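Dear Dr. V.,

Thank you for agreeing to look over these. As mentioned in my earlier message, I'm a first-year student in the group and I'm still getting used to reading structure tokens, so any feedback on how I've presented them would be very welcome. I ran two proteins. I've put each sequence directly above its structure. The first is here:
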Amino acid sequence: MKKSEKLILDSVAFISGFPIEGECFTINEVINELKNMYTRTRAEIALSQGKLRILEPSRKEIEKVKRIAAKTGDLLNLSKTDIKLIALAHELNGTLITDDYDIQNVATVMKIKYRGIYERGIKEVFEWKNICKGCGKIFPLNYKGKCDVCGSELKKIAKRSKK
């Protein structure tokens, strides 16, 4: 870890025992996700020692993340916590510590650095869309139901691009 590097911690950082050193940040929602007594205590000790700070991203950054996640098709898979973590990392120009592929996908598009703990990280950026199995018509990801042209089921597919 670089001395001036700002790390934004997802719950996996606490669960894995990731060293909380340097400039570490998270959001309240991540702390609230920690149900195991050991991981919760670890986070609370880091907070009390000043090794970890809780910050909230700006509304502007949150909206930016939502817009980009909607374009990539990840918005429906991201929780409010995920969106806020990405927004905070972007706002602080920090590195996200997460194993969540949806977070990593949006982070890559937004040019946010990230590091996985148990997983290596994504190899490709995905853009998701719904396509009709019958006629191939493309629908928005939030569209529910069958194709309005041919009545066939829709399938979520990924359009790949290099990282």
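The second protein is here, in the same arrangement:
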Amino acid sequence: MGKPTEEQRPVIENASANNMVIAAPGSGKSFTMIEAVISILKKYPYARIGMVTFTRAATNALAAKLQKRLSKKDLDRVLVDTFHGLVKKQLDMIRWPGKMLIGPAQRSVIHRALKESGVTMKFAEAEFVIDAIGREMDTDVISVRHNRQQIHLFNTYQALCQKDHVADLNALSKFVVGQMHSGKMRTLDLTHLIVDEVQDTDSIQFSWIALHTRAGVYTSIVGDDDQAIYSFRSSGGVKIFQQFEKHFRPNIFYLNTCFRCEPEILEVAGALIGKNVYRYAKELRSAKKGGGKVTFRSYVDMEEQIQGILSLINQDPHGWAILSRNNAHLDELESLIEQPVIRYGGKSFWDEKETSDVLSLMAFFRQSNDPRLMKRVLALFGEQESVLDEVALSMRGRKVTFGDLAIPEDSSLETKHYIQTSCALPRKVLIKLR
């Protein structure tokens, strides 16, 4: 894209104000944001701009585009990061002494919370519930009712985090927002803030945006309420736009021209999303000349759908792509497709629970004096919290490795078997593991 369009130009020219940019898919959103940054830097020599994205991949892509357009001097005045990345920067500024809880370490604490609380729930559901409750902050953005069992599980999880002096990203984000709200922490040193894919923000993140806006930072939120697909992760969707409009009375701009899709695709998409009454009305237009057709196929169940997809692939082996909101469906399809495929998105093999559990076990062989790793490994065996605390206290007090300890009598059979097995490993094997 060369020059800004008639729709994009007002956004760029009015960047030093509070703005709400509702951008259709493929409407040149990234181009418009970058042009706005360039315009701000030219007009205001002391401006400092923050750009917020939702994924690390989006952050890297946006930063790479800015590097091509800005001098080193101007680039130093632009801060590009995810919400969690910016929260971490604020925590570093106050030298927060705790440890961040993410990945396998967080999954281990969830396992322990399930065991300690006595709640009967599958791990995936427990993980979802703890994340959902942890994201709640502003009931005007998102409000979900949770039952007593779910709340008890969350409170147990929080108690374990406090005992271990750790905190997950939701808790840390709430802490930062609370500190800014009370005046104990300053907002980031910015003059302008541009938030991409704002429909995906949750109530904590919206509070973070609002606090910066109230502090005098010119804020432009950019996104599309029709592309809000993360409600399962407590995103606010259209409510984010409504709350921002209500509290800050921003300029409202629409980018309705799609440079990505043929009009045939856009027409069908528009007919579907137009059924939603809780949205900002917009007139979608395609910049393409047109061509091709959209075909709907209906199937009775998932098995019939999978067979239908395989049949379509056989008819056209070289011109297809499969999209799904469920990785499990894609995994099943991939196992049945005979030809090589290119995977895009989804979890890494190393992020899977079973893989990370094995890595934690191997890491503990190497660092058997680490109480945190000890808790993570023994939690896999469903060990009681009282046993974990007793062992951790002994390890810290005597400064010995796990294998040198006398295991408490009330330890589980699985833990005792693990001790016997690990201590019986040949010396050569232990040396290799270390």
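From my reading of the second output: The chain has four domains: 8-95+174-286, 105-137+145-162, 302-346, 350-433. DSSP finds 19 helices and ten strands in the chain. Does that match how you would interpret it?

Kind regards,
E.
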